[in-house]
Amino acid sequence: MPDSAQLPARIAPSILSADFARLGEEVRNVVAAGADWIHFDVMDNHYVPNLTIGPLVCEAIRPHVDVPIDVHLMVEPVDALIPSFAKAGANVITFHPEASRHIDRSLALIRENGCKAGLVLNPGASLDWLTHVMDRLDIVLLMSVNPGFGGQSFIAQTLVKLRQARALITRHVANGGQPIALEVDGGVKADNIRLIREAGADTFVAGSAIFGKPDYAAVIREMRSQIALADQGAA
Ligand code: DX5
Ligand code: ZN
């Protein structure tokens, strides 16, 4: 088994690579194929150079699935969208610390609205962002690509950063802190997920690797068997 603070693996398909004309059917299919969460990428053409979906779409897919909806805010400013997404049925809300003037306040606001809260760190962003808000976090999301687009290649340096984040979280939990999930987003595929698990991740976002293939269940099965190999190796 992986270290005791590392949570069981969760697969979170990103609907950024889904067919938006058939979104309800797509999310139902991917959950039937074994997805644990739906990852929902919100881009504002300001914090990132792309424009995607907002609370209306979250509300529209909510009745189609029972699994948690994991809203990844790539927007600036952040705070006004938090209650909107909570009302639209989000369960997890994460944001990029550079995009909020008051990180501690934004994290508290997410929990006050009944959601799990997390920070997202870009490839070049320091883990130091986490230091003074560990008790406010339910999840840490490390970007393994620069945010804005699906289908980019995994940045290998993320493996080093994942190990460092894993150590921070394990120490926090060992000192009596709450559990914190460690999520990774960008370029995750069946052929690199074993290394990513070994580096300490527990929540795996995958967009093009799943929605780009005809058989979602086959991809998710392969990902889980690669994760199991990592966990056996760590036993
Ligand atoms: C990138 C998004 C990702 C993206 C991942 O800015 O945050 O969630 O959809 O897509 P893939 O898995 O194709 O890299
Ligand atoms: Zn994302």
Task: Give the SSE layout.
Elements: E1 10-13, H1 23-32, E2 38-43, H2 55-61, E3 69-74, H3 81-87, E4 92-95, H4 103-112, E5 116-121, E6 139-143, H5 158-174, E7 181-185, H6 193-198, E8 203-206, H7 208-211, H8 216-233
Parallel strand pairs: 1-8, 2-3, 3-4, 4-5, 5-6, 6-7, 7-8
The structure holds D-xylitol-5-phosphate and zinc ion.
Helix content: 25-40%
Q: What is the residue-averaged pLDDT?
A: 97
CATH superfamily: Aldolase class I
- Computed structural class: alpha/beta
Relative strand content: 15-25%
How would you characterize this protein structure?
By secondary structure, the protein is of the alpha/beta class. It is 34% helix and 17% strand. It has one domain: TIM Barrel. The protein contains 8 helices and 8 strands, in the order E-H-E-H-E-H-E-H-E-E-H-E-H-E-H-H. The protein has an 8-stranded parallel sheet. Helix 2 (55-61) links the parallel strand 2 and strand 3. The radius of gyration is 16 Å and the shape is globular. The protein starts with 9 loop residues before the first strand and ends with a helix. Residues 14, 39, 41, 72, 185, 205 line the site of zinc ion (ZN).
What characteristics describe this protein?
235 residues, alpha/beta, TIM Barrel, 8-stranded parallel beta sheet, 8 strands, globular, binds D-xylitol-5-phosphate, binds zinc ion
